[in-house]
Amino acid sequence: MAPPSFYTTAELAREAGVTRRTVMHYAELGLLPPDQATASGRALYSPYSLRLLRDLIDLRALGMTLEEARDMVTLRRATHAPDGTYRRDWARGDVPLSDEQLGRLHRRLRVLRGAYERQQDNLARFDRWLTKRFTGGVLEEGGLEEES
């Protein structure tokens, strides 16, 4: 089944697993403006907006501020077509963020990536321990590994 041409606010929220109010709040802040509106003013969102909303949710879960998340979405919109495909022809002038904003964003991403990399082994270790605990020692991937 093909995705809908456009989502209403409620449909977009349902697909992303958030409340309608969250979508409306992000729209009010300019993080996720509607792609179109009906004659009666009802907001409509493209399927690509679902990806952007999921990105916003993930970025917030990773600890990014709303401003940082907004800049990430702005960067994605500037470098991708409305359908979400990467635009190979984008130029620096297409990105409405200053070099200072981009530098700040780059530094923040490096901090987050470093934290993620440091925690990757811990997460895998906890997952293996919990898998052993709740499956009687049978691991789905790989084999049993002893934890110290």
UniProtKB/TrEMBL annotation:
Domain HTH merR-type residues, every copy: 6-75
An example molecular function term from Gene Ontology annotations: DNA binding
Annotated keywords: DNA-binding
Keyword presence, DNA-binding: yes
PROSITE patterns per record: HTH_MERR_2 (PS50937)
Pfam families (UniProt xref): MerR_1
Transmembrane annotation, as ranges: none
Protein name per its UniProtKB record: Transcriptional regulator, MerR family
Organism of provenance: Deinococcus reticulitermitis
